[in-house]
Amino acid sequence: MRHQLQEKQIKLENYQTVYLEGGVTHLETILFLHGWTIATAPYQETLYLLSQHYYVIAPELPGFGKTTFPTSVPDYNGYVECIISFLTALKLKKVHVVGHSGGGAVGVVLAATFPTVVKSLVLIDSTGIPLGFLPKVALRRLIDFPAQIGRFKFKPTVLFMKALISNWIFKTRNMFQASWIALNKDLRPLLPQVQCPTLVVWGDRDLFVSVKCAYEFSQGIPHSQLIMLKDEYHEWIFYHEEKCVNIITNFVSKVEL
Fold first, then answer.
1. Which of 153, 112, 145, 116 is nearest to 35 (CA)?
2. pTM surpassing 0.90?
């Protein structure tokens, strides 16, 4: 795997984080937001491929990975405030946002509340619509992840598990808070405020975040597009990197016309 990305540290007003950077700065900027409970590491091949077309930045969200944050983040707006602080520090005024799972939910709030910052939005199997009661969600997760075993690639799977375990051990409070947000917070009232071009991409076998959510996002966000991927699960982005990048580049290139 080719990971010609740089890991950089940045100290912001309320926290310190690291981010992966690739590509050259004169290209269009992709802000990639990783899924909750993990970090940027499992996405490295996807980010590398994206960096062949764009300037890519992928910060670790506060409370996950290598970030330092004094308390757990209370809600989606808390994450967005941190992202705005991050973009301001890097002097980035407009970005194309790509978010997977929990990162997609943060992207929705960012686009709705800071419309001048987000040029386009790609939601990949995103949270943001309440997942339901914890026992049922946990059961769906226990079924969904093993169902992908035949598709696993060794490196991203190891990085996924490493990040997951590390977060639960060292950032337990934030993990519980992030889980509560995903289970209960509802972004549907905000969806009409997302005015940028938006693409919703979903695996039709995603058991963790129901396919029903894909249709609710696409119907709630004005003029959004929906791509449903046949026979794909929640983590398909880790195992079909070229497919993911082709979808993103095709969409962003049309936005830039």
1. 145
2. yes
